[in-house]
Every structure is written in structure tokens, then in C-alpha cells.
Amino acid sequence: MHFFAFAALAILGSASARTLPRQVTQVPINNTVSPEVALKSGGNVPNAPPPANISTNGVASFQAALYLENFEVGFFNEGLYNLTHLWGSKNDLVEVFEVIDAQEQVHVATIAGLIHHFGGDVIEPCQYSFPVSCQADFLKVAQLIGSLGLGANLGLIEKIKNTDPDIVPEVASILGEETRQDALFRMIGDGFVVPFPTPFDTPLSGDFALNLANQFIVPGTCPPNAPQFPVLPTLTTTTDLGYATGTGVPVTFRIGGGTDSTWASTIYVGWVNQFNVPAYTPATLNGDGTVTTNIPDGLAGAAFAALTNQTTAATTVDLTTASLAGPAFVQIS
Fold first, then answer.
1. N or C: the chain end with fewer CB closer than 10 Å?
2. H/E element holding 24?
3. Cβ–Cβ contacts within 10 Å for residue 117, how many?
4. DSSP code of 227?
């Protein structure tokens, strides 16, 4: 085993008995954070002047980004409480997630301040419920959260690069920090895996990212000004929290709400991975609210899968529009 595997495993504690998820109050949304949070984070909201202007597309895109950053803070707030008070986790692990939580609070304050500066509505947090009952569950879900955050930031850059290029460097700076977090989650999760499995990370469309987060949001708890997006039926693997092994193997997904009688008899799963054109595999509706397909060859790391009735959508955005359910997070390697 490599040295960094030992270093990661050294900070893991044992999981405790099942506990109910705790709803944690979110950090107040301001254009700064407390001195204590700034110290723990390693920095505060950037003091450079904002851009001279921002497009309508930019404001809406950052409101969606704030919605997702609130979601991340909710996850790490709750996780920190459980790590500290319920699961008896080792101090080193707690300290790592204190830093991550503080950094996410700085991201929230930074994005909220930008939106407020240009007169947009600042999005308050929703309430969240995460399927974690022990430290091991928390670390697994953290990998999904990390991949979602990476993909959403890549998608945000793609969306604003033409209308608001002056803001791209700041988003890219957040992306770099999210990448380091994601590598850590992979390294200290349930069994060591290579923290950097692919040469490219996988971008997500805004609607795909929002739908992934939506499965953890308590219905009816979001503010009236929360981003509006087409909510798709959920798609989740029947394996442990999205984990699969390799490619060319069968995988079964559970469809939230079951199948729809209007769907065509020929169904596919579209796969988003790295910067590749979506791949498609034929799928079989099993009649019990599940669908089975094979993971296509050539995929690695974190992939996202969506149910669709076509095979021609050549971008993640086009696949999003053509999706019937999803996306599902699938950890391939």
C-alpha cells in the first residue's frame, strides 16, 4: 500500500450504531464570514473588486450555484456534528472536515455577495436529509457530493464563459479547491481508491446537478426564489450508494416513482463521463420499477447515467433535455 493510503486510513475511526439524520442550521448568507471561519478556512471572501457588470445569465447561473453551495454546507454541517458528537470519529478526521466546512461557507458568502452586489435575489438554504447513519456512509456520500460539486463548477464555467468571462477565474479557483476535496474523499472512503482516477473530470449541466441535489432536499422547504428547473424522476443504483466495479458489467437502477406508460418500449441509458460524447447502452425495463443495462467500456472514475429514449444527443446539455429520469451517480473506478 502506498504511503498516502496509510496516511488516509490513519484518520479513520470506527462507525457507530444507526442514528437519525440531524438538521443543522445553515451559516448565515452574507458577503463575509466570521474571523473564526476565515481562520479555519485559510482565507475569507476575496477583497478584489467585483467585475464591472454581470449578465442576466450570469446572475441566474450563480443563483443556481449558491443553491448547490448551500446544499454542500448543509451536508458538511450535519456531518461535522455527527462526526464530533455521535460517531466518535478521530480528531484528525474531524479537523479535516472542519476546514472543508469552513471553506464551503466562504464559497457561499462569496457567491451570495456577488449576487447581492448586482441586485439579484440571494437564495436561502433549504432543509436537507442525507442517507447517512455512520461514518462510512458519510464518507461514501461525500464522494457523490464531491463529484457533483466538481461537475457543477465545470458546467458553470461552460455556461458563463461567453457572457461573463471576467468571473471565470474565480470559479476556476473554487473548482481547484473542490478537486482537492474530491480526491481526499476518494482516498479516505470505504476502501482506498486512487484519488485521481481519470485525466479529465466530468462536467454536469446545471439541471443535472440540481436534480442530483434535489434527492436530498426535504420537499416544500426551499425558499420561493429557489432556482426553477425540470425535476426528473430519480435514478439510483441498487448497489451500495452508486458503487459499481469496472465496465462491461450489468448494473440495475431503481426509478423513482416507477416507469411511465408513455415511455417508448425501446429505452437506453446515456452515460456522461469526462469530456466525452455521451455513450448509450440498451436498457431493459424490468416491470418492478427498475431498469438494467451494462456499463459501457471506456468509462472510469465517476460517471453519471440518465434514462432516455434516444441515442443522438451529443452533449451533456442535450442529453439532459432528452432524459426521462436521472441522473444517477455511478462510481466506476
1. N
2. none
3. 13
4. P
Torsion of CA 234, 237, 240, 244, to 10 degrees: -140
Q: Record the cell numbers describing residue 98, joined without a space.
A: 472542519
CA 168-317-179 angle, 5° bins: 45
pTM: 0.87
Cα-Cα-Cα-Cα dihedral sign, residues 115, 117, 118, 123? positive
Q: In whole angstroms, how far apart are CA 222 and each of 119, 144, 299, 303?
A: 20, 21, 35, 28
Instruction: Give the model confidence (pLDDT) of 279-313 as tens digits.
Output: 999 999 988 889 999 999 999 999 999 999 999 99
CA distance 232 to 306: 10
For the chain, which residues score pLDDT lower than 50? 1-29, 241
Q: Which three cell numbers stand for residue 319?
A: 442529453
Residue positions counted in the chain: 333
- Quote the CA–CA distance of 152 and 146 in Å, as a whole number: 10
DSSP 47-114: -SPPPS---HHHHHHHHHHHHHHHHHHHHHHHHHHHHHHTS---HHHHHHHHHHHHHHHHHHHHHHHH
Q: How far apart are CA 253 and CA 8, in angstroms?
A: 31
* Cis peptide leading into residue 250 (ω within 30°): no
Long-range contacts of 216-223 (CB under 8 A, 24+ apart): 216/71, 216/75, 216/128, 216/129, 216/130, 217/71, 217/126, 217/127, 217/128, 217/129, 218/126, 218/127, 218/128, 218/129, 221/126, 221/127, 222/126, 223/123, 223/124, 223/126
Rounded CA-CA distance 148/208 in Å is: 9
Angle (nearest 5°) at CA 167 between 166 and 170: 125
